[in-house]
Amino acid sequence: MKNILTIAGILLCQFSYAQTSFKVIPLGVKGGTDESNLSAYMIAPQGSEDYVCLDAGTVHYGIQKAIQAKLLHGTAAEVLRQNVKGFLISHGHLDHLAGMIINSPDDSTKNIYGLDYCLDILKDKYFSWKSWANFANEGEKPALGKYHYTVLTPGTEAPLQNTAMQVTAFSLSHSNPYQSTAFLVRHEEAYILYLGDTGADSVEHSDKLHLLWVEVAPLLKAKKLKAIFIEVSFDNQQPDKQLFGHLTPHWLMLELQDLASLAGTEELKGFPVVITHIKPGGNREQLIREQLKAYNPLQVKLIVPEQAKLIKL
């Protein structure tokens, strides 16, 4: 009887984990040059088709590729209108939001989530009649009201409407004094951490990554954090003064060691770290992959995402 109960308990744990894990569809993974493959990730709980987009550099083309890969169903326009329930925008650079803007005429009503500084950029620079029709509910008149700006308060969890997920936003330094955002997405007791563009604390003369690690270290220790999505834009040959608020393999590993000092080294062994925002150019992509593989002292599980290739976490 005891063995039966033990087996039942294991099966229950496995079932529970499956219910609270995530699926991520990369719509775009790169940090520039190719406008058909820029930062954008659809995320939903396993078993759900209600997604939000983590950034939105590439949208329509990425959805088309995901449909071709049989990860999504219907037309790209239908998926955008029906399955994408909102956008989480980390900062105001075009490679993180151009797809959302270009596709806005054919989109459905939904929320754009972000910190106040980011939403102010959208109001002032993009959804203004000077550069594009104002499809949002605030800003220059007439405001067409399709998109609703939802200001996130740093460190405070908020619901992602029409999904079973919640989000907490944290400020990042992206070429100080400019900012970016990290989004901690939760479904039940499972979490994914997605970072927009960011530089290392010592290069940025900031403590924002350290403060973020302080927040998520308990989740890592409790096995509730399922993965970290974090950028590595340049290889180690890039001088610090020319990083412009980005990371290299060297700086990534130093930042992860800071996290390990808070959560414990063993917690990071085999932990999924998804490398985003690699900037194309020359042999940079190959160098970054080689350098990440060559120096991985914490033995994290490094994942380099590919457009329209499903990630299960």
Give structural notes.
- There is one protein chain.
- The protein is α/β, with parallel strands linked by helices.
- The protein has a single domain (21-305), classed as Metallo-beta-lactamase, Chain A (4-Layer Sandwich), CATH 3.60.15.
- The chain has ten helices and 14 strands.
- The strands form two sheets. It has a seven-stranded mixed beta sheet with strand order 6-5-4-3-2-1-14. A seven-stranded mixed beta sheet has the order 7-8-9-10-11-12-13, with helices on one face.
- Strand 12, helix 10 (284-294) and strand 13 form a beta-alpha-beta unit.
SSE topology string: HEEEHHEHEHEEEEEHHEHHEHEE
Over all CA atoms, what is the radius of gyration?
Answer: 19 Å
The percent of residues in helical segments reads 25-40%
| Low-pLDDT windows of residues | 1-19
Give the mean pLDDT: 94
The main pleated sheet reads as: 7 strands, mixed
CATH superfamily: Ribonuclease Z/Hydroxyacylglutathione hydrolase-like
